[in-house]
Amino acid sequence: MRDDFPTQLTFDEAQAIVDATAAEDRLPAERLAIARTQGRILAQEVVAPIPQPPFDNSAMDGYAIRHADVAEGGTTLQLAGEQFAGRALDLRVEPGQCIRITTGAPMPAGADTVVVREVVRVEGDRIAIPAGIRAQANVRRAGEDVRIGDCVLSPGQVLTPARVATTASLGIDQLTVSARPTVAVFTTGDELIPPGIPLEPGQIHDSNRELLMGLLRADGLEPTAWPTLPDDPVRIASMLRDAASSFDVVITCGAVSAGEKDHIPALLDTHGRIHFWKVRMKPGMPVLFGDLGTARFLGLPGNPVSVFATYATLGRRLLDGLQGRTEPRRAFRARLAAPIDKAHARREFVRGRLEATEDGTLRAHPDAATGSHRLHAAAMADALIVVPEGPRQLSIGDVVDVLPY
Ligand SMILES: Nc1nc2c(c(=O)[nH]1)N[C@H]1C(S)=C(S)[C@@H](COP(=O)(O)OP(=O)(O)OC[C@H]3O[C@@H](n4cnc5c(N)ncnc54)[C@H](O)[C@@H]3O)O[C@H]1N2
Ligand code: MOO
C-alpha cells in the first residue's frame, strides 16, 4: 500500500479537505414542488414577485374607521358596510362612517385605523367608539414583511418549514434545490450478528447499522443499508465497488485501523483514491476519506461512539457540502460544569449533557464514560463537548464549543 496520502491531519485540515472535495462534487439541482422541498438546500435565489402582505389589511376583528373622526375623543359612527376576508368589495369609509371588518380583510378606502370589536358599543347601525384610539392601530401594511423584489432566500440556505411557507406566501409553487445524496451504508466484521439472533461466543450485535441509518435519516436522507461486509478483502472490494457505481456516497464503519482484518484503507488505495486516512481527533482517529469510482467514500472507525463523532463532524459536513449548503450549522457555547483534563494532543469530542441554567447560560456536564465503545453512555448524553488540540486542563466555568445532538 502506498503512503503518499495525507495522514495524521489536524481536524481542521481534514475538514478543509472534506469541504474542498464536496465543493468539486456538488450534486445537480432539481426543480421540485415546494411540498417536497422541506429540509432541502436551496439552489436558487428567491425574489419576491409580490409584496407580503399583498395589501393593507386588518389585524383584528372590529371596525375600520378614519382616525380623524375620533381624534377629539369618543364618538358614534354610522355603520356603512361589511368587509370580510376574501374578496375586496371596493368599499369606502366617508367621514362619520365605519365599516365592520374581520382579521385579514382588506382595508376599505378612506379608513386608516381598526378599532377592535370588544371596545365598541353597537346600537343598531350606530357604533359608539371610545376615546383613546391610536392612529393606524391594528392595520397591517402591504409590503411590511417583504417588499416586491426583495431577495428573501439565497442559494445554500436550508429550507425550513417557515422558509418553505414564506415562498408559499409569495405564490411560488416550485423551487430549485440541490439533489439529495444517495448513500450506501455498510457495517463490517465477522463478529457482527443482527439483533434478534442469539450471539455465539465472540460475536456482538450490529448496532452501528441502526446508528448510521438513523443519523442519516435524521438529516433528511434515505440511506440504503447493504449486507454486512465479511472480513474478506475480495468480497469487500466487489461489494464496495458495486455500491460505489450507483450511490453518491459510500459509508462504511469498521476495518480502518491497524488490525490484520482492517482491509478497507488498502482497498481504497488500490481501487480508488485516499484523500486522507487518520485524523488527530478522539474518538475517530482512524477515519478514512476518499473516492471510489464516482462515489465519495467515508470509512468511519468501528467503535460506535467513533461512528457517532466522525459522522456528526466530518460525515455531516461532507453531505452538507455536496448539497451546496453554505448556511453554517448553528454553533453553541457552554460553560463546563466539571473539569476536563486531557493529556493527549488530539481534538477531543467528549460526550456530555447540556443544562439550561436559571441565569441564561448553557452548562455542559462532561460524561465520565469516555471510552468509544460506550454507546449507551453516548445515548444518554446530548452533546459533544469540543476540547481543542493539545494537552488541556479545563476548569469548571471554562467556555467550550458544544455540538448538541
Ligand atoms: N493497534 C491499533 N489498534 C487500534 C487503533 C490503532 O490505531 N492501532 N485504533 C483504535 C481506534 S482509535 C479505533 S476507533 C478502532 C477502530 O477500529 P476499526 O475501524 O478498524 O474497527 P473494528 O476493528 O472493525 O471495530 C472496532 C470496534 O468496534 C466494534 N464494532 C465494529 N463494527 C460494529 C458494529 N457494526 N456494531 C457494533 N460494534 C461494532 C468492533 O467489534 C470493535 O470492538 O481501532 C482501535 N484499535
Ligand atoms: O479514536 Mo478511537 O475512535 O478512540 O476509539
TrEMBL record:
UniProt pathway: Cofactor biosynthesis; molybdopterin biosynthesis
GO MF term (any one): metal ion binding
Catalytic activity: adenylyl-molybdopterin + molybdate = Mo-molybdopterin + AMP + H(+)
One GO BP: Mo-molybdopterin cofactor biosynthetic process
Pfam families membership: MoCF_biosynth (PF00994), MoeA_C (PF03454), MoeA_N (PF03453)
Matching SMART domains: MoCF_biosynth
Protein EC: 2.10.1.1
Job description of the protein: Catalyzes the insertion of molybdate into adenylated molybdopterin with the concomitant release of AMP.
Name of the protein in question: Molybdopterin molybdenumtransferase
Species this chain originates from: Lysobacter dokdonensis DS-58
Classification of source organism: Bacteria, Pseudomonadati, Pseudomonadota, Gammaproteobacteria, Lysobacterales
